[in-house]
Structure formats: structure tokens, C-alpha cells
Write a structure and sequence with these properties.
Blueprint (H helix, E strand, L loop, with lengths): L3 E2 L7 H23 L15 H5 L5 E2 L2 E2 H18 L2 H26 L4 H12 L1 H10 L5 E2 L1
Antiparallel strand pairs: 1-4, 2-3
Helix pairs in contact: 1-3, 1-5, 3-4, 4-5
Length: 147
């Protein structure tokens, strides 16, 4: 069994919370657009940057659930874990986010040939969450271990 143990709470919780707040806002805006496409995203269209192509594609839902709902839940849970002091769970969530972002960016670039600025913003925020997590782990490397 693989277990990550941290001897101290996440030192950089405040930046993670601000990143997550921005991610929740962005995901909520995309979710509103997904639920009511008449809202429309304010984004260029017709070129490489084309939010409408991305947000209305078949890849924008998983089993009928809009992807922004997953983003909203992920950012909310990530922020909640900073209050509950669960950096080990945050590490697993970060790895999940990293794999998800890689897949979604691949779909945008190689399948849809379009990039959504709001989606990219959420992807960047998700990746930025790894910096405070990394700094917290690195601050006392002898205190982190894998069993």
C-alpha cells in the first residue's frame, strides 16, 4: 500500500485558496454557459482561439455531466482540503488534475484544433496549485516519506 505522510500542515494554504477561488469562479462561468448556451462565452471565435467550439463539443461532457462541474468540484475540494489539513489527499488530487489537464489540452490541440481561453485559465490554475504543494513538501524533505 502506498501512503504519503507529511509531518506538518500545508504551509502555503493561503495561495492555494486564492487559486481555487479563481478556479471556482472560472468553472462556475463555464458551467453556466454549459447549462444555458444562450449566455455565450465572451471569447474570440473562428480561429485557433475558439471557446464555442470547445465548450459545445462532444468532449465538453462526460457521461452527460458538463466538465465545468468537475472543475468546480475539484477546485472546491482542493480548497476545503487546505482547511482540513490533508496535503496527502491534495497530492493525489493534483496528480489527477495533471492527468486530466494533459488529456483535455490534447483534445483541444489535436482533435478540436481550437483553444478555449477560459478552459486554459482553469487548466493553468489547476497546475499552479502544484507550486504551493511542492514548496510545502520541499520545505522539510526529511519529513516526507512514502511507505
Amino acid at each position: 500500500m502506498l501512503v504519503f505522510a507529511f509531518a506538518q500542515p500545508l504551509r502555503y494554504a493561503i495561495p492555494v485558496r486564492f487559486i481555487c477561488l479563481a478556479g471556482v469562479c472560472d468553472s462556475f462561468y463555464l458551467l453556466l454557459n454549459s447549462l444555458d448556451p444562450s449566455i455565450g462565452v465572451i471569447c474570440p471565435s473562428g480561429g485557433v482561439i475558439d471557446c464555442a467550439t470547445v465548450t459545445t463539443s462532444i468532449y465538453s461532457h462526460v457521461v452527460g455531466i458538463p466538465l465545468p462541474l468537475f472543475g468546480l468540484c475539484l477546485f472546491s475540494l482542493f480548497a476545503a482540503l487546505t482547511f482540513l489539513d490533508h496535503p496527502d489527499a491534495m497530492l493525489f488530487m493534483y496528480v489527477f488534475a495533471l492527468v486530466s489537464v494533459s488529456y483535455l489540452v490534447g483534445v483541444e490541440l489535436f482533435v478540436l484544433h481550437a483553444i478555449c481561453l477560459y478552459c486554459t485559465f482553469a487548466h493553468v490554475l489547476g497546475l499552479l496549485n502544484g507550486i504551493p504543494l511542492y514548496l510545502s513538501i520541499r520545505s522539510e524533505p526529511g519529513k516526507v516519506w512514502i511507505h
